[in-house]
Amino acid sequence: MASAFRLAARRQSIPVQIGPVTVGGDAPVVVQSMTNTDTADVESTVRQVAALARAGSELVRITVDREESAAAVPHIRERLDAAGVDVPLVGDFHYIGHKLLTDYPACAEALAKYRINPGNVGFREKRDRQFATMIEVAMQYDKPVRIGVNWGSLDQEVLARMMDANSKAASPKSGDEITNEAMVVSAVESAQLAEELGLPANRIILSCKVSAVQSLIAVYGDLAARCNYALHLGLTEAGMGSKGIVASTAALAVLLQQGIGDTIRVSLTPEPGGDRAQEVIVAQQILQTMGLRSFMPLVTACPGCGRTTSTLFQKLAGEIQDYIRDRMPVWATTFEGVETMNVAVMGCIVNGPGESKHADIGISLPGTGEDPAAPVFIDGRKAMTLRGPNLASDFRGIVEDYVEK
Ligand code: SF4
């Protein structure tokens, strides 16, 4: 039966080409991430970019904060190319981006996109001159830019102008409303200035990041209505662990449901020594669970309850998920846009057979007191019953055979 719930039509945006990746237009919503290495450390940065790309990041941003970083960028690009990692690199510039891009032409060339924060390019006439320099470099090297506004570094001149106008308004808005509006105005005015300088609209992506879920939804709703530039979504400083994942998912899901967003980044604070690729996995899972993209087969597992006394099914579900994750790059490239494969690992016969029949492959493990047998369903039909101590490895083998075929 068709679902009564549907995604809103995708907002029409101007597609932007970033190396081989298209952001906006009819292109799938792109997953991107950012390194946390010192870019001047070529070895560590190459390793992390490659890991993020392997996890499925389609664009990777690196900070270019000083001369040593700018000098390292072409070497990072060369090393990645030599290793067959062709993920486009985005340079994140603040304060001295104009200088780094002009003094290090090999850096300007090696990057596939420049991120410009209009709140961090200088003040007054310096700001316009330095912003113009970055746009001119982008035009010279035929690169797109992201004009990325962040409420932690909002252009104070735009904010002051809007607060002044608000103080004279008949019905003044709240401070939060003015801040949100100032972010949108800063992004749109900067994009218009870039166009006036000669950068075409199909070289411009916008973002307005905040760290509060409701503000992000309000800001992007406003931004989407005011322009047709491609939009980069992300909740900034989302936080650690489940808090960061839940907050990012809540904010991005609402916007994506409204058809807003052409590329997403999930900004998670990793545990010390934690896996940076986690943010890529979460971004993919957001898109996949919303039915926007297919990255990997889905594993459906029941939560378990008093009917399961062993941890066999949790262990098996985890192993199947890991196996699929290892195979993910193959799926990401081969199965893009194809309906997702679904594997069900269920704890007992209560919901096991029913859920398994709806999956491509499903197993219903024996719960407490049940016959120690596990029926396996393939393509909706019972294919066999597994028994004995090798049940888990037998099922893994069945999944592997199915994936191979
Ligand atoms: Fe419990 Fe069985 Fe339902 Fe799993 S399928 S949650 S084990 S009743």
TrEMBL record:
InterPro entries with a match to the protein in the record: Dihydropteroate_synth-like_sf, IspG_bac, IspG_bac-typ, IspG_C, IspG_TIM, NO2/SO3_Rdtase_4Fe4S_sf
Record key words, sorted: 4Fe-4S, Iron, Iron-sulfur, Isoprene biosynthesis, Metal-binding, Oxidoreductase
Pathway terms, separated by semicolons: Isoprenoid biosynthesis; isopentenyl diphosphate biosynthesis via DXP pathway; isopentenyl diphosphate from 1-deoxy-D-xylulose 5-phosphate: step 5/6
Gene3D superfamilies: Dihydropteroate synthase-like (3.20.20.20), Sulfite Reductase Hemoprotein, domain 1 (3.30.413.10)
The enzyme's E.C. designation: 1.17.7.3
An MF annotation (GO) of this entry: iron ion binding
Cofactor-binding details, from the entry: Binds 1 [4Fe-4S] cluster.
Organism domain of life: Bacteria
IspG TIM-barrel domain mapped to chain residues: 15-283
Catalytic activity entry: (2E)-4-hydroxy-3-methylbut-2-enyl diphosphate + oxidized [flavodoxin] + H2O + 2 H(+) = 2-C-methyl-D-erythritol 2,4-cyclic diphosphate + reduced [flavodoxin]
A Pfam family it matches: GcpE
Segments passing through the bilayer: none
GO-annotated biological processes: isopentenyl diphosphate biosynthetic process, methylerythritol 4-phosphate pathway; terpenoid biosynthetic process
Domain IspG C-terminal: 299-399
Cofactors: [4Fe-4S] cluster
Positions with a binding annotation for [4Fe-4S] cluster: 302, 305, 348, 355
Purpose of the protein: Converts 2C-methyl-D-erythritol 2,4-cyclodiphosphate (ME-2,4cPP) into 1-hydroxy-2-methyl-2-(E)-butenyl 4-diphosphate.
Family in the record: Belongs to the IspG family.
Matches recorded under NCBIfam families: ispG_gcpE, PRK00366.1
Protein's recorded name: 4-hydroxy-3-methylbut-2-en-1-yl diphosphate synthase (flavodoxin)
Organism of this sequence: Defluviicoccus vanus
